[in-house]
DNA sequence: TTCTGGATTATCT
DNA sequence: GATAATCCAGAAC
């Protein structure tokens, strides 16, 4: 833990970046924790916002790697993505909270730690992420993103909450973590 | 200009 | 397990 994740780290296909993010530490304004669940999306993927090409909403996904792409979903929740190669991004779905618990509970309400960031909308709310953060660089304040040590098992599975591209196994989770949005369905291969 | 549906969550039964 | 809540991008007209 400790290496700052910069543009070079993100200048790769999203499905290669995604597993390397498991175990990394993500903070926004000092609040956040360890990434335990992500999903990869790219422009060849019907489930991706970038599939239809560049639009006003997804323009950040086609910008430089290492930036935050934030969008609102179902009119209620925000989701935080990390931009990788142009047109691809990694959706951050769950954190193990480690920093700024008080601030996060202030935004989310008092609740068990394991429910604080166990889903993309919850995570964004806990960290105070909304459209204001769309397009910000991840290697500068208010973000703080540090590489993990890589000594944990990463499991893969199919992605959640989408209607197209449902068979693409680009969900990556920290094996056995109690902080996931959903447990992995089957006995998935660790690596 | 209007209409539709979603990379979700909370709150029911 | 089922569904309401609630906004905006994209598509259709």
Supply database-style keywords.
single chain; 191 residues; alpha+beta; 8-stranded antiparallel beta sheet; 4 helices; 8 strands; 15% helix; DNA-binding
| Mean of pLDDT | 90
Give the uncertain stretches in residue-range form: none
- Termini gap: 19 Å
- Structural class of the helix and strand makeup? alpha+beta
Helix content: 10-25%
Q: Radius of gyration, rounded?
A: 15 Å
Structure description:
- With 191 residues, the chain is of the alpha+beta class.
- The chain is 15% helix and 27% strand.
- It contains four helices and eight strands.
- Helix 3 packs across helix 4.
- The two termini are 19 Å apart.
- The mean pLDDT is 90.
Brief write-up:
The protein is an alpha+beta fold and 191 residues long.
Topology at a glance:
Elements: H1 7-10, H2 14-21, E1 25-28, E2 31-41, E3 68-73, E4 77-83, E5 89-99, H3 101-108, H4 120-127, E6 143-146, E7 154-157, E8 171-174
Antiparallel strand pairs: 1-2, 1-6, 2-5, 2-8, 3-4, 4-5, 7-8
The protein binds a DNA duplex (13 and 13 nucleotides) through strand 3, strand 4 and helix 4.
């Amino acid at each position: 833990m400790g290496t700052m994740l910069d543009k070079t780290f993100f200048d790769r296909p999203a499905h290669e970046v995604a597993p390397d993010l498991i175990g990394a530490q993500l903070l926004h304004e000092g609040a956040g924790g360890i990434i335990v669940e992500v999903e990869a999306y790219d422009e060849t993927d019907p489930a991706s916002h970038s599939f239809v090409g560049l639009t006003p909403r997804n323009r950040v996904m086609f910008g430089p790697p290492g930036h935050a792409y934030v969008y609102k979903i179902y009119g209620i929740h925000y989701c935080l993505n990390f931009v990788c190669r142009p047109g691809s991004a990694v959706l951050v779905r769950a954190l193990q909270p480690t920093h700024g618990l008080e601030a996060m509970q202030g935004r989310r309400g008092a609740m068990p730690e394991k429910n604080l960031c166990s889903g993309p909308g919850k995570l964004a709310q806990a960290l105070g992420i909304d459209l204001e953060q769309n397009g910000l660089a991840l290697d500068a304040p208010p973000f703080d993103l540090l590489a993990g040590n890589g000594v944990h098992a990463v499991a893969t599975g199919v992605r959640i909450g989408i209607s197209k591209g449902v068979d693409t196994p680009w969900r990556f989770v920290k094996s056995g973590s109690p902080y996931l949005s959903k447990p992995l369905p089957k006995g998935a291969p660790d690596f």
